[in-house]
Amino acid sequence: MHTLDSAVATAHAPRDWVTPLELLALGAIWGSSFLFMRVAANDFGPAALVEVRLVAGLVILLPFLWRGRAFLKLSHWPKLALIGALNSAVPFALFAWGAERAPAGVGAIANSMTVLFAALVAFLVFGEKIGLRRAIALVVGFVGVVILASGRTAGDNVTGAAIAGTIASLCYGFALNLTRHWLSDLPPVVGVAGTLTCATLLGLPFAIAFWPANAMSIGVASWLSACALGVLGTGIAYVVFFRLIQRIGAPRASTATYLVPIFGMAWGWMLLGETPTWTMLASAALILGSVVISQRAPKA
Questions:
Q1: Are 95 and 49 in contact, with CB atoms under 8 Å apart?
Q2: CB-CB contact of 79 with 182 (8 Å)
Q3: Residue partners of 22: CB distance under 8 A and separation at least 6
Q4: What pLDDT, on the 0 to 100 scale, is given for residue 156?
Q5: Cα torsion at 249, 261, 178, 53 (round to 10°)?
Q6: Contacts by 175-178 with C-beta closer than 8 Å and gap 24+?
Q7: In whole angstroms, how far apart are CA 287 and each of 86, 146, 252?
Q8: Any bridge partners for residue 152, and if so which?
Q9: What per-residue confidence (pLDDT) applies to 8?
Q10: pTM of the model
């Protein structure tokens, strides 16, 4: 009788329409990060833009760090500093450098390699099995990067931006694995807030050294883009992401990353007039296809 009651209750349970909307919103927010970088990078320069982004994101996440301070030990901070460099300071700077030189979609597409690099680092550094399916997916993904790097947009060679985005994704791959092995005893949001704090401190000397001399004349659009990059793409997006992980699990929550290159190219096209090239579309199809294949669970 209890089983029948449970089945009836499940049948009449309201359909979960919030989760798809949150996944869609998360993909749109992370995709818009490349638009904001494209707008602000030329005025700020990579170092200053990264610091503004980190500070704005930290404003959102600092309350979580304060609430979870009891979980933090002194031994956590060196680990948080290294992960902060690999997960925020270095890749943010690489993507910002690329945004000065190539359309928003290029960085968004290269960002899709994160999942594949995470599997590669787990295999090479931590000795985890990679499997034939993921090995093939890695090869296909790298072919997509080569195609992306070979393209040209409006007469400009995007090779440098594609390589910078790929290295940034490799940093993310290391950071994901180190987080899983080193920070498993911390609540996820506390770990992210800690790494963001360290990244902000690490980036401060570079921001001071390379702060634009004409900062007072930087336009409103660039300042708003830099702040939105931190508040939306770093602060609020992380809160939504970890809320999704708690509710539906990491594998389903990570599907939001599949939407990032789509939104990255769409925002650039709609708001900046950056028409995606055939090489961008082909590389996005290869990389996203390889990521989807690598994430499929093997048959029992």
A1: no
A2: yes
A3: 240, 243, 244
A4: 67
A5: -110
A6: 175/83, 175/86, 175/87, 176/87, 176/114, 176/118, 176/121, 177/118, 177/121, 177/122, 177/125, 177/126, 178/79, 178/82, 178/83, 178/86
A7: 22, 11, 19
A8: 157
A9: 40
A10: 0.88
**Concatenated DSSP letters for 235-255?**
IIHHHHHHHHHHHH-HHHHGG
Closest CA to 175 of 194, 156, 162: 194
Amino acid 10: pLDDT: 42
Angle at 270 between CA 293 and CA 104, to 5 degrees: 55
Torsion, CA 161, CA 91, CA 138, CA 147, rounded to 10: -10
Per-residue tokens: 156? 């400009």
- In the chain, what is the greatest distance between 2 CA atoms, to the nearest angstrom? 74
Quick one: tokens of 251? 């594998």
- Please check the confidence at residue 83 and state whether its pLDDT lies above 70: yes
- Is 70 exceeded by the pLDDT of residue 297? no
Q: pLDDT tens across 138-161, in order?
A: 899 989 998 998 887 665 678 999
**216 vs 250: CA distance, rounded Å:** 43
Are 102 and 231 within 8 A, CB to CB?
no
Measure the CA–CA gap between 260 and 238, rounded to whole angstroms.
14
CB atoms within 10 A of CB 274: 22
Place of tokens 């890749």: 91
pLDDT band at 2, cuts 50/70/90? very low
Closest by CA to 189, choosing from 64, 289, 70, 297, is 64
Within 10 A of 208 (CB to CB), how many other CB atoms are there? 11
H helices of the chain, in order, are 2-12, 18-44, 46-67, 76-84, 90-99, 104-111, 114-124, 131-149, 159-182, 188-209, 220-230, 237-248, 250-253, 260-272, 278-295
226-254: average pLDDT: 85
Q: Rounded mean pLDDT of the chain? A: 88
